[in-house]
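Think of the structure tokens as a kind of shorthand, similar to the way a musician reads notation: each symbol stands for something richer, in this case the local conformation of the backbone. In the example below we present two proteins back to back. Begin with the first one, reading the sequence and then the tokens, and try to describe in your own words what changes along the chain.
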Amino acid sequence: MARRRKPAFGAWVYFTLAFLAGAYFTFAAVQGSFGVFRRAEITAESRALERELDKLNVEVARMENLTRRLSDTYLDPDLLDEQARSVLGLLRSDELAIR
């Protein structure tokens, strides 16, 4: 009768180390600093920052418009009237001020 021989101890060590290395690299590819989950976090953060940038661009455009309207080359009577009322406390003759 033929005897069955056990695999050598070195083969067990080799396959165990190969399995552990594969498991480590799989974990690193999914959970690591440059893994799939981190990429999803970066993408979400990028979208949030782009939305914030859009809001800031709108605010900058509004401020540029107000600055242009207050410049020497452009006179906006409504804005001038509003500024005179708020800064100087001026009133027209037909208005009443209630404090």
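Once you have a description of the first chain, move to the second and do the same.
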Amino acid sequence: MQSLAEHRKFSVAPMLDWTDRHCRYFLRLLSGNALLYTEMVTTGALIYGKGDYLAFNEQEHPVALQLGGSDAGDMARCAVMAQERGYDEVNINVGCPSDRVKNGSFGACLMAQPEVVAASVKAMQAEVDIPVTVKCRIGIDDMDEYHAFAQFVETVANAGCDTFIVHARKAWLQGLSPKENREVPPLNYPRVHQLKADWPQLNISINGGVKTLDAVKEQLNHVDGVMMGREVYANPYLMASVDKEIFKEHSTPLTRREIVLKMQQYIETIDEPGFKPWHVARHMLGLYAGEAGGRIWRRYLSQNGTGKSPDPSLLLNALDSVETAQANVAAFNESKVG
């Protein structure tokens, strides 16, 4: 059985409105080893909200909760909740640059307050046995020197945190939208590599702009792990090669067809008010990316997964449409050869 540190060699980023429990169940079918993260959940939602923000499927393990907050007492209370529910890790969000996060005094703005993050780490670790980790940027606004970044890490590491996931871009808290902050500030991989060189005892994962497993392997020459986000969401089947390519396992991955059948079965097990197959299918739009029938797959799901009377056999019927298109392409190609 692999340790959590080993699972961190490849992880899927916490993505707001994307990496919900349905998405994570889907991604787990593709890789048994990748570490999965929840969407960010705030301490306020967990303590005062009426919904169950900690629900997940046992099949998702290993899975980490990403937590947004800055009050050490609240963070510790929520870490206990996460451990009691069975999460494998709790991660502190020090990277999200949205105004909503900034106004709540958590997210990327906390990079300017390392002592606040350190206090949360201490309080959380005093109450739970699961790892407490931090996801951060390399800087914010005019705080854009390696010294300031290293000082943040040193302060938090001295409080007991030994694992950092670093988005290798700084964040502009003024003037850029959250989307722009994922794309406009330039990537600075060497700064993260330098952090690992200076702090070899820390577990350092890198995030941002990595789009292929070859690029993952290159990064693993410099850091302990790689976190991918948007590319996994757009082209999820790349994860079918993660266990072999990154974790050196020889198991045979599920085919796209097998995944569709399992996800249809999953949909049929859900009995919740207001649930629609689209709540699952929306995470699967990219399953056939780059394949014949990929556009048909996306269009069928989008057109038939929503509305007042959604198709209960949505995935199966979409699969039929794709396989019919693929058979037609194969027959046409065969006729040309003949």
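Compare your description with these statements about the second chain. The domain at 256-337 is CATH 1.20.120.1460 (Four Helix Bundle (Hemerythrin (Met), subunit A)).
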